[in-house]
Amino acid sequence: MKIKRIFTVILMLFLSISCAKNSVNACSCQTLTADIFDMCQKYDVGFCYKNPSNGEVLGYNPKKKYDPASTNKTCLAICVFDMLKNGKINLNDTVEYKSYHKYGGTGIIQYEEFGKRYTIEQLLKLLITHSDNVAFRMLMMEVATEPYLKEFLAPFGIIIETERLSLQSFSAEDLVLHLEILYRYMSNGTALAKMIKSFYSSGIYNDKIPAGVPNLTVFHKPGWIPSKLICADEAIIFDENNQPYFLAIMSQGIPQEKQAEFFQALTAKINEYHNCLGQKHEDSN
Predict the structure, then answer these.
(1) What is the C-alpha to C-alpha distance for residues 176 and 69, in angstroms, rounded to an integer?
(2) Dihedral over alpha carbons 14, 20, 23, 25 (to 10 degrees)
(3) Contacts for 83 with CB less than 8 Å, ≥ 6 apart
(4) Residue 185: Cβ within 10 Å count
(5) Helix and strand counts by DSSP (H, E) for the chain
(6) How far apart are CA 21 and CA 27, in angstroms?
(7) Which among 22, 74, 136, 162 has most CB atoms closer than 10 A?
């Protein structure tokens, strides 16, 4: 921790010298970077910010692997979206809820009777909006099996090295890659794209990234494991100019009562950085 503090002091000194040689706006962006890094040093955190329009990237421990919790459900979701796009399955196809699908944690299907049938559309909606663990198992076991999922994800650079997706660790950089793929499926104006936008913007757990930018449009998927103090959120955020950027935050060890507050504050500060960069590019044109 002392080493990190020393690093921050050195960074601040460097920025103060650099600011004297650059524009005021560039200086502001550099100061925000130092503020963001200083915030992250309080906990075991990794984040990755990426602006697809200009390639700007900012990260803190962006390659460090964490348990992704339910953010890994996006990997499954994009696989199912691709199957729908290519006509391998239909939204109205149904899956029967069986005893081996039952699983605790988040979700509502676990409280239903075995034998009830759910459409692919219903399962996707519950998977994303309620982070339903049974919906995850039903889609994984009966629709996009593990071998098919691994084969589908590999060309995108998403390598599942473990026996099951649920055991795979990811970095914040990895989650941004997942978001980039998701963005492709939600940006073509089709009925499928509209459905994806609807699901990713109407989840019931919104106290992390979305609460940090309450006036912006956010499509996101959170994840957490309270017993391990694991918390993560991944989001496609549309700024005030309706331009998207990607943000993934992962953590372990933040006290549960501090998680929402930290994610909100970090998101707000990164959004300031994003806006600062935008102004910087405008000033340079």
Answers:
(1) 15
(2) 50
(3) 89, 143, 144
(4) 19
(5) 10, 7
(6) 9
(7) 136
Q: Is the pLDDT of residue 274 over 60?
A: yes
pLDDT digits (tens, 9 = 90+) for 161-173: 999 999 999 999 9
166, 76 contact by CB (below 8 A)? no
Is 50 exceeded by the pLDDT of residue 176? yes
Q: Can you tell me which residue has the tokens 């990190």?
A: 4
Chain centroid to CA 11: how far? 28
In this structure, are residues 217 and 238 in contact, taking their beta carbons and an 8 Å threshold? Answer: yes
Q: Do 131 and 70 contact (CB within 8 A), yes or no?
A: yes
**Where do the H-state alpha helices sit in 41-102?**
73-85
Give the integer Cα–Cα distance in Å for 134 and 126: 9
Q: Count the Cβ atoms, other than its own, within 10 Å of residue 27.
A: 18
Q: Dihedrals φ, ψ of 125, to 5°?
A: -60, -45
- The per-residue pLDDT for range 43-60, each reduced to its tens digit, is 999 999 999 999 999 999
Q: Which carries the bigger pLDDT value, residue 57 or residue 278? A: 57
What is d(CA 201, CA 125) in angstroms, rounded to the nearest whole number?
Answer: 11
